[in-house]
Amino acid sequence: LKKIELLILIVLITGCFSACKLDLPTSSDSPDSARGSGNAAKAVWDPYIGIHPFACDAGIQQPHLLKLIQAGALRGTRLGNLENPEIQRFAAWLQSQGVEILGLFDNEHLRDSNVCQIFSQHVAQSPGVFVWEIGNEVSGFPGCGFVGFTPEEYMSIAMPLFYYAKQNHPNVRLAIGAV
Fold first, then answer.
1. Contact (Cβ atoms closer than 8 angstroms) between residue 177 and residue 134
2. Which of 2, 11, 50, 73 is packed most tightly, with the most Cβ within 10 A?
3. Residue 17 confidence (pLDDT) above 50
4. Taking the alpha carbons of 111, 113, 115, 118 in that order, is the dihedral positive or negative?
5. Three-state SS for 101?
6. Mind listing the pLDDT tens digit for each residue in 155-168?
7. Nearest C-alpha neighbor of 49 from the set 31, 29, 32, 69
8. Which is more confidently placed, 123 or 139?
9. Confidence check: pLDDT of 41 > 60
10. Other CB atoms closer than 10 Å to residue 6's CB: what's the count?
11. How many whole angstroms separate alpha carbon 81 and alpha carbon 3?
12. What are phi and psi of 79, to 5 degrees?
């Protein structure tokens, strides 16, 4: 049943992109401007979005993302599974459009004894990614089947990884995942 619910969600999101006309901000809009009815939405629009790996089909998403980019409404995105060659190509396209990428170093690697080496591999595979989120909802999310970390467990992994990255990848910054 969960796979069907996920498929329905993907269809609804994709359909909304096609059917809904968003009144997006442009680079000339300011939160204080009083033009048109969409100004309230423009004032709160965040130019940074998350794109789940299942939604990284470039053929489906590129036209919609291009509209956001051209409107000046997309400056950055968070992407996971950057070790996947298809997602790497998708990220490269976004970067070629001037979009910053926040890479997700996912939970599956955090308990690995070679976590620092795996992180280095991710950095090497994604040379244009300069900020990495370490873990995703690391304290667990109800119903997702992931056994989470306590804040102490998470920090016992994140802090050594932080110092490793600082020494070995000085141009890369780490962001703490939600604990």
1. yes
2. 73
3. no
4. negative
5. strand
6. 999 999 999 999 99
7. 69
8. 123
9. no
10. 12
11. 19
12. -130, 135
Q: Is the pLDDT of residue 130 over 50?
A: yes
Q: Rounded to an integer, what is the distance from CA 73 to the centroid of its chain?
A: 16
**CA–CA distance, 174 with 51 (Å, rounded to integer):** 19
137: Cβ–Cβ under 8 A, 6 or more apart, which residues?
107, 144, 146, 148, 177, 178
Comparing CA positions, the residue from 127, 146, 125 lying closest to residue 135 is 146
The amino acid occupying position 159 is M
- Rounded to two decimals, the pTM is 0.70
| CB within 8 Å of 16: residues ≥ 6 apart | none
Burial string for 8-40 (b: 16+ CB within 10 Å, else e) reads: eeeeeeeeebeeeeeebbeeebeeeeeeeeebe
